[in-house]
């Protein structure tokens, strides 16, 4: 990915590696250490498939976890949690009322949260829930390319600019679009979030992760193809992003979490023999990788 | 089990190993390769205990996974999935309406699905749900002996033939009956399914797995006793059966999945030291076992 | 912890190690062997985060597992199960009616159960559910110090004695109180349970676990700090306590389960490199640790 050039808006910008002493790297290292030293609580409303891995990844990253589904639980816990993670996989009927209610209450409380729009575009209930978040949006959205494009479509953000980014067909939980194709949607989403919450970020996961604060676009190469052969690498990345959001600004939290996952994925790939041992080694690596390793990650920026 | 003789209907038939060049072995190898080459999506409506292992086993076998509980999610995803897996463990109140609705809609869409009648016989809600499936049945049923017998009882299939197969008492999630005692129920179930869906199969899991298309009875020895010391070996077998059903006929899918699990169980037993490492090694083995190993599995047939 | 002196009631009592031939050690060894020889069924109504680990820990300890959420399933399964485990994490709306109903029905059936009051004090729904258990209480309560104190508060038990034990602020799922601070609450809870169910016990998990039958206070040192770096060590301890309760009295079941977990934790810590491998090694150790090792555990008693 180094020395790549990328269409962003309608112009081509140079993508360059940020320097070794860029202040962003300092903020990343500080976030990693702060989580490990203060074990912040990030709570989750997340799907049943990967809820265990989300909690274990948050613990392995140094934070603590609490999972709830009732608005009264979420609101009570929001008072003692640094951030909230909401993931719209495996919906149940009562979520249609509960999730819009929770988003509105978090907005009134001024509590930051991370949204994972899993399977955006599948199901009328999910669409209704995701649309309700438009006016009480999260601080960070993290998804795959298809989900980011679908969410920006749902929120009518793709009409706001003159260029034509491709829309996505519903894709289940797997992306059918590549990360670069979601660049425009990610930028527009990040700007929309920022208008509501101040600082904001959007992270697009894929072969090379993309993170933007609505102004700059960062690309984070690395990781392991084995991360797609276990369920929940993306969900647990969303959860750990919330853990970092408890101690850092949205852009730093998103980049720190992606970089942690990429380094841990590489370490796990080298010491595993299939998806079973990969997951075990991955959790160990989340625990063992150093703040220096994470902060020294390749970070390419398009300005 | 070789050279065994088994009561089937009212007559004794010889059980023999199928030959090394039996076309069934070719179909099994093709199914295994096809899944690994095309990563088909099989969606699941499954219990909360083992939902993570179901997804991870499907991924480790080469497929992709999506889990949902709302009819609108299931029907939307059915359009892009090769097969659906429904497992009636850990019921919630809304399932009583949702699951009959889903079965009827899958029937009208002509979409194949696999039923795991977990704990059949326990609870009035589960009984009502399972009875509703009688007229919109799955393509494959996979369960333990007690569950297969209980389901055939519920569907009134045990009155259709002159012989008297034993009925089962409710058994929780563990079978209290051995596989052979479910032979008659499995045959009658398979014929019932086939009348609705064309080709069909029933798989009975146990010390020696049994699979039938309503005509022939196949027995698949092997596996590991440690598979009963982790939760979800049966559930994840049902999920992987759906993965294979996305690319193969019901009989081939059922035999390929059972054979894969038996070979992976044997490999995992040899390299593990307890149920924790067994599950890790089992997922690695699902990923690493070759199509030739699976297709060369012992397959005994009663004609 | 040896030769410690502990405030208990208003007096100071000597804490001493029980002898090597104390009958309690014999009962512990018998419970461990009985579970491994008879594979008793303990059913669970438990949270979605750790439901898989609860089942796997019960299996690794030698028992069998069944998980349900509908009252008709729980009541049917109670007929064939030795004990029931109820854990109030990850509440759904229908639990508000289902759980009080289940507790009342278990009381009328005379079936023993174990309560894990996860996150007691968080959420009005959880509080209503926990308050409803006051008159149909479990045989055993197992929680962290904050949860035990909060539950005793909710049940109005802290007014029954002259001394003033500290109340706890809501703490999410992590304890903010240390085990000793819950001694009084644990004693009063155990006496309350005992008035309803005959023999009863309360277990407080922490750096040194505490178990009381309302008369004596036992402290069980050991374990591993890594048990707080995986999700569900406490939940699965509650589940395995139910497994032992299927074959033993409440005090023996609680001490056997805590001792098993402490020994397994120590073994796992020695052979793991992070929380991923710790969980794997922990399940292996639950399977491999001997009844002699468990029964020989350090057990300090305050008489």
TrEMBL record, chains A, B, C:
This is Hydroxyethylthiazole kinase. Pfam families: HK. ATP binds at residues 142, 205. Keywords: ATP-binding, Kinase, Magnesium, Metal-binding, Nucleotide-binding, Thiamine biosynthesis, Transferase. It comes from the Bacteria. The keyword ATP-binding applies. Its EC number is 2.7.1.50. It is an enzyme of class 2 (transferase). One of its GO terms (molecular function) is hydroxyethylthiazole kinase activity. HAMAP family: Thz_kinase (MF_00228). Belongs to the Thz kinase family. Pathway: Cofactor biosynthesis; thiamine diphosphate biosynthesis; 4-methyl-5-(2-phosphoethyl)-thiazole from 5-(2-hydroxyethyl)-4-methylthiazole: step 1/1. Substrate binds at residues 67, 232. It catalyses: 5-(2-hydroxyethyl)-4-methylthiazole + ATP = 4-methyl-5-(2-phosphooxyethyl)-thiazole + ADP + H(+). CDD domains: THZ_kinase. Gene3D superfamilies: 3.40.1190.20. One of its GO terms (biological process) is thiamine diphosphate biosynthetic process.
């Amino acid at each position: 990915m180094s020395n790549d050039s990328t269409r962003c808006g309608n112009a081509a910008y140079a993508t360059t590696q940020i320097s070794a002493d860029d202040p962003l790297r300092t903020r990343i290292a500080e976030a990693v250490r702060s989580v490990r030293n203060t074990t912040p609580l990030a709570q989750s409303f997340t799907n049943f498939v990967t809820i265990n891995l989300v909690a274990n990844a948050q613990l392995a990253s140094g934070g603590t976890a609490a999972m709830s589904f009732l608005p009264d639980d979420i609101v009570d816990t929001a008072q003692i949690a640094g951030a909230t993670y909401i993931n719209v996989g495996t919906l149940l009927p009562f979520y249609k009322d509960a999730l819009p209610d929770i988003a509105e209450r978090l907005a009134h409380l001024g509590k930051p949260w991370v949204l994972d729009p899993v399977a955006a575009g599948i199901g009328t209930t999910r669409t209704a829930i995701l649309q309700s978040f438009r006016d009480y949006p999260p601080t960070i959205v993290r998804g795959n390319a298809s989900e980011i494009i679908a969410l920006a479509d749902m929120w009518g953000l793709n009409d706001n600019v003159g260029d034509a980014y491709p829309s996505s067909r519903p894709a289940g939980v797997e992306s059918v679009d590549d990360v670069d194709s979601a660049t425009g949607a990610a930028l527009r989403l990040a700007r929309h979030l920022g208008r509501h919450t101040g600082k904001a970020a959007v992270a697009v996961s894929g072969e090379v992760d993309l993170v933007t604060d609505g102004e700059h676009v960062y690309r984070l190469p690395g990781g392991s193809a084995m991360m797609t052969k276990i369920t929940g690498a993306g969900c647990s990345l969303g959860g750990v992003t919330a853990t970092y959001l408890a101690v850092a600004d949205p852009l730093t939290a998103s980049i720190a979490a992606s970089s942690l996952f990429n380094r841990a994925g590489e370490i796990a790939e080298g010491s595993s023999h299939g998806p079973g041992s990969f997951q075990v080694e991955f959790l160990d690596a989340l625990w063992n990788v150093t703040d220096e390793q994470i902060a020294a990650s390749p970070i390419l920026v398009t300005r």
